[in-house]
Amino acid sequence: MTVPVAVDGPTAVIGTGTLGRRIALVLATRGGEVRLFDTAAEQQAAGVAFVQAELPKLLENRPDGSPGHAVASRSLAEAVAAAWLVIEALPERLELKQQVFGELDQLAPDDAILATNSSSYPSSQIIDAVSRPQRVVNTHFYMPPVSNVVEIMSCGPTDQEVIDLLMEKLPAFGLVPFEVRQESVGFIYNRIWAAIKRESLAVVAEGVATPEEVDRIFQLSLGARYGPFRAMDIVGLDVVLDIEDHYAALRDGIPEGPRQLLREYLDQGRLGMKSGQGFYDDYGDPAQST
């Protein structure tokens, strides 16, 4: 693996949903071109518009930053041409990610870093069709620019120089990287957070407290901005259930009660903020949410 030297060159984000467009936003704070690609044309256009609208506001608090520009790419090949960093932010479907990484391996420059933002799958599971896995890595973002933590994890064969380069360069984008030192499903924070979510759901499922009461005691005790149930609404209860089901398939002893509570809400069409209702009912028009 030759570590890319043109780290001031273009970057690319594949998938322009909520997280993809936010990743593109922070990548646009150091000048240069950020390319967005999505097979859904409307979503791709919305992603570019989001970056263009939010970038000036973000740079107001980043005196060391400089405005880049986001562009919509017509094809995957166009998006990754001459890119030094390609970040995949597609839905959590393993076969889709495997297919796309096989294509990226063929289309991207030989020295480009190929990163997945997957929260559920270690990058070791998506490299079956990749001929140069030493340049593949997890870069797990949370909700930039609100939370600028990014966890960096090897796919196994990842060249340590790739990880070292990302640890060195990502802070220039206002990001705070953490190296995950062993392969870990759930990375660092999400494993800890999953236990908090699961026990919070159990407390409500058992009738011990309401979601509002759990959130309030959580806020008062830890000084958090919001509690676990508000956080789950923001992420989406369907996504939370998918993650919990994934953990349950991998680890013995994951209780059923918390997942059953999530299913009851989903059966009512309460997906969280994106549907206007979840554990809370105060989100207004979901079309106005980003």
What does this structure look like?
The protein is α/β, with parallel strands linked by helices. The chain folds into two domains: 11-180, Rossmann fold (3-Layer(aba) Sandwich), CATH 3.40.50; 190-278, Orthogonal Bundle (N-(1-d-carboxylethyl)-l-norvaline Dehydrogenase, domain 2), CATH 1.10.1040. It is built from ten helices and eight strands. An eight-stranded mixed sheet has the order 3-2-1-4-5-6-7-8. Strand 4 (85-88), helix 4 (94-107) and strand 5 form a beta-alpha-beta unit. The longest helix is centred in the N-terminal third of the chain and has 20 residues, at 41-60.
Which structural class is indicated by helix and strand composition? Answer: alpha/beta
The N- and C-terminal alpha carbons lie at a distance of 38 Å
Task: Report the CATH C-level class of the largest domain.
Answer: Alpha Beta
CATH topology of the largest domain: Rossmann fold
Tally the structural domains: 2
The tally of helices reads 10
Shape: globular
Question: Which architecture of the largest domain would the CATH scheme give at its second level?
Answer: 3-Layer(aba) Sandwich
- The run of helices and strands is EHEHEHEHEEEHEHHHHH
Largest sheet: 8 strands, mixed
> Strands across the major sheet, in which order?
3-2-1-4-5-6-7-8
What is the typical, i.e. mean, pLDDT? 93
Enumerate the spans where pLDDT stays under 50 for 5 or more consecutive residues.
Answer: none
What percent of residues adopt helix (DSSP H or I)?
40-55%
* Computed CA radius of gyration, to the nearest angstrom: 19 Å
| Strand content bin | 5-15%
Would you report the number of β strands?
A: 8
